[in-house]
Amino acid sequence: MSVQAPSAVVLVRPHTFMPNPATVVDNAFQMSAHSVDRQTLAAAARNEVTGLAEALETAGVTVHVFEDYDETRPDSVFPNNWLSTHAGGHIGIFPMYAPNRRHERRSDILDFLKTHYRVQDVIDYSGLEMDRVFLEGTGAMVLDHGGRVAYAARSRRADPVALERFCTNFGYEPMLFDAADADGTAVYHTNVMMSVATDFAMVGLGLIPSAERRREVVERLSGGGRMVIELSHDQILNFAGNAIELQGGEGRVLALSGRALGSLTAEQKAIIESSCTLLPVDVPTIELAGGSVRCMIAGIHLDRRPVLAGIGD
Asked: Which of 72, 155, 209, 295 is the most buried (most CB within 10 A)?
């Protein structure tokens, strides 16, 4: 078992999905869906979440799916932005940039986690929204759970003040850097350009303008012998960086979209497959909203509570 790869996840299956008009300003990955009927769009997104859940369960990952019928939560399919869990029984709740995303935070999901997993404390940073300070969970941060490093591309969704508070509370070293696409637009979420697994990391180094900071990021990522796979700008646009390593029933898997897998080279896939199995799932409708498979998954790094005799799970 790897501390990096959780064996259980939370997914939210939306019934009223659409690309969020409140986030398109700074999300260069987001696409218009005006030509698609909203009901058709929502049904397709719902089916894609179901497909992801089935693929993960087939691989031996425990999946907890929560339904969402709220029409005012277009981005609820991305729970990793407001929720993170950590070994030792810790949960983080995060401040969200777009006002219409703030009520994605759900007490029923927290109550479920407390009931079925060992939770010691919940640290809620959402009050920082009143000061316009934001840190959108493991979208804004890519966490190396073993090396205790929190990588974050500076943006309006990843404020250095909130990052510092999180790292102090949860015991991570902050690794903040600037990153921008070919047009000079700041990368809105770190997890679209970087993924950290147990034995390898994938990162769009070309998006980091500072040569010195690139070197420092590579140095930290390669600690302990981890292989660093450099992703091109085109691969980043195809969500190759938006992947997550999970613990399956017969070893670790790397969950990513079919589009992301198609952009990887044979050499890159060989490095990945030396330590885990590639698990592609097609999510083209979800990707219209500017996120992919990793954004859809909130990993559970908590210990499961034992099932007592005579009491149902």
From this structure: 295
| 150, containing H or E segment | strand 149-153
CA distance 16 to 22: 16
Phi, psi of 152, rounded to the nearest 5 degrees: -150, 125
CATH of span 8-300: 3.75.10.10
**Per-domain residue ranges for the chain?**
8-300
How far, in Å, are 156, 280, 290, 298, 304 from residue 194 at the CA level? 18, 17, 15, 16, 28
| Measured distance CA(162)–CA(167) in Å, rounded | 9
Q: Cα separation of 61 and 8, whole Å?
A: 6
The pTM assigned to this predicted structure is 0.93
Q: How many helices (H) and strands (E) does the chain have?
A: 9, 15
pLDDT tens, residue by residue, 142-195: 999 999 999 999 999 999 999 999 999 999 999 999 999 888 888 989 999 999
User: What is the DSSP secondary-structure string of 13-70?
Assistant: EESS----TTTTTT-TT----TTS-HHHHHHHHHHHHHHHHHHHHHTT-EEEEEEE--
Nearest to 181, CA basis, from 257, 242, 232: 232
